[in-house]
Amino acid sequence: MEHQPNLGRRRFLSIASITIAAAGLGNTAVLKAATTETKVPATGNGNPISAGFEHIKQVNAGLLDVGYAELGPQNGRTVILLHGWPYDIHSFADSASLLAKKGFRVIVPHLRGHGSTRFLSSAQLRNGQPAALALDVIALMDALKINKAIIGGFDWGARTAGILAALWPERCEALVSVSGYLIGSQKANEMPLSPKAEQAWWYQFYFATERGRIGYEANRHDFAKLIWQTASPQWQFEDAVFERSAASLNHPDHVAIVIHNYRWRLGLAEGEAKYDALEKQLADTPFITVPTITMEGDANGAPHPDPAAYAAKFKGRYSHRNLSGGIGHNLPQEAPQAFADAIIEVSNWTK
Question: May I ask which residue range the UniProt record assigns to the signal sequence (predicted)?
């Protein structure tokens, strides 16, 4: 079920570094009508490692030489899937395969600072701010001559996908966003949270220190594994599953990108002036007008907003999916069929 949100006068809320300015809903019945509850079989709990991506392509796009996986027919409707931190393209290995079998052309890029994606210039700031990540995707679409695509993502990837949908709706055919509306700003991040909520962001404050930067540089493997375990506490992933993605973090710019991203959110690192106009637009928490499905797992151990806080940010056709069965933060990898089904469903809304 879905709804066309009624956007009247709203009180806006801010939520930490994934800060959203999301409209509070006066009519909770509207949200209930828009929400689907889905029980997901525990396929992600202890499942063997999937085949993954056999071949990684490279293309010069904007500031980067982008490494990406591509599955499905060249003439299929294009889907671009964006991973988060500390994950990589293999979060979508199974869902991408499912979509390719349905005739979609699926593009899964390594974000800057991950895998085989590299900066073209050694002089370029290793910038992790949200606008820069979004423009990376626009540049990739231009390089691959993709005019418009269905965009899906989680964590950093969901934020990037949301930015694309909000600022470049002409390039975004439809959106699937895990944890909903994640667009934020430095100004909104100035608002302190409750002690319990702040505790959940411990790594952000750790990264704000030089000790944290050095610690992540020295221990990124174990650090990433800890985040996987705490963000998806019921997902009993095999070591081989983690190691395959952890290899993508062994990147010369990875630490610099991650540290800059989290310090920028808190106003502790400068961005680049060329992104100022875009960040100003994002600070106004723009509405998303493209058809959208948001998703959330019942065992997401990472900080994430309540769906009721962001439902009214979506002005187009919209639906929310709650997944039960121990599904955590890395939803596309833990529940690949449900994620692929959401992409297929939202694609049907635009036919």
Answer: none
Residue type, 230: T
pLDDT digits (tens, 9 = 90+) for 115-129: 999 999 999 999 999
- Prior bond to 86 cis, omega within 30? yes
Establish if 94 belongs to a structural domain: yes
- 254 is written with which tokens? 């990875």
Given a contact cutoff of 8 angstroms between Cβ atoms, the answer to whether 146 and 123 are in contact is no
- What is the tally of structural domains in the chain? 1
Q: What is the pLDDT of residues 175-221, one digit of tens each?
A: 999 999 999 999 888 989 999 999 999 999 999 999 999 999 999 99
Phi-psi region of 334 (alpha: psi -120 to 50; beta: other; left: phi over 0): alpha
Residue 26 predicted with pLDDT over 60: no
Q: What is the CATH number of the domain that holds 278?
A: 3.40.50.1820
Instruction: Supply the Cα-derived Rg of the chain in whole angstroms.
Output: 19
Domain assignment present for residue 207? The answer is yes
CB atoms within 10 A of CB 65: 14
Compute the mean pLDDT over every residue in the chain, rounded to the nearest whole number.
89
Distances in Å between the Cα of 313 and the Cα atoms of 145, 308, 316 are: 30, 10, 9
Three-state helix/strand/coil letters over 256-304: HHHHHHHHHHCCCCCCCHHHHHHHHHHHCCCCECCCEEEEEECCCCCCC
* Domain encompassing residue 270: 12-348
Residue 135 covered by a domain: yes
Q: Which two tokens stand for residue 49?
A: 């490692």
CA distances from 218 to 212, 213, 215, 250 (A): 10, 9, 5, 11
Predicted pLDDT of residue 35? 80
